[in-house]
Amino acid sequence: MFSIIQAAGWPIWPLLLCSVVALALIIERLSSLRTARVAPPKLLDEVVSVTRAHLPGADVVNKLAENSILGAVLASGLRTVIADPRLTEPVLRASFESAGRVAVHRMERYMNTIGTIASAAPLLGLMGTVIGMIEIFGSQAPTGGSNPAMLAHGISIALYNTAFGLMIAIPSLIAYRYFRGRIEEYTLEMEQAAERLVPHLMRFSVPPVKKAP
């Protein structure tokens, strides 16, 4: 491996850095975007069951918020109802929308970096190819002869950097597309969960007192 890096020349180092960063971020996103950490399947049913008769205490709501990203969204609605029993439905929906934006931001963490690496890696490989071509042209002597060692080194730089750039870009692009699809699925699940919970929580809202004419 070290001999390949030597043959690829200095342009390989930015590509190696990109590969390490991309691998670390992909592993982190695979862990963070697991269903159990984002939207557990039975969580909404459990919340509806717990709040069927009365609103839960602060400790239960805090545990719900720490359970998962979906739990944090649902907990925001519960806190809004607990804080203001006279709230209206638009206020509750606005609370869910605000928490949903925060949830999407959490799920999209590092996505721009992965996408940037997927786009930049082929360009870095192309840069290595250009540098290799310069080495190849530099191996040609003015008298018509050539330096075989310099020629071979230029070819190695060109080919290795092109290959490394594609090897980094393709998995990064696949991971980016996969994570983007998962985030969209989770976002839709959260929207549906909030839509189902709104009428359930509005049962605890105290109607405003009407003034006598």
From TrEMBL:
It comes from the Bacteria. Residues 66-191 form the MotA/TolQ/ExbB proton channel domain. It holds the Pfam family MotA_ExbB. The keyword Kinase does not apply. It is a multi-pass membrane protein. InterPro entries: ExbB/TolQ_transport, MotA_ExbB_proton_chnl. Keywords: Cell membrane, Membrane, Protein transport, Transmembrane, Transmembrane helix, Transport. It is found in: Cell membrane; Membrane. The chain crosses the membrane at residues 12-30, 114-137, 157-179. Belongs to the exbB/tolQ family. This is MotA/TolQ/ExbB proton channel family protein. It comes from Piscinibacter gummiphilus.
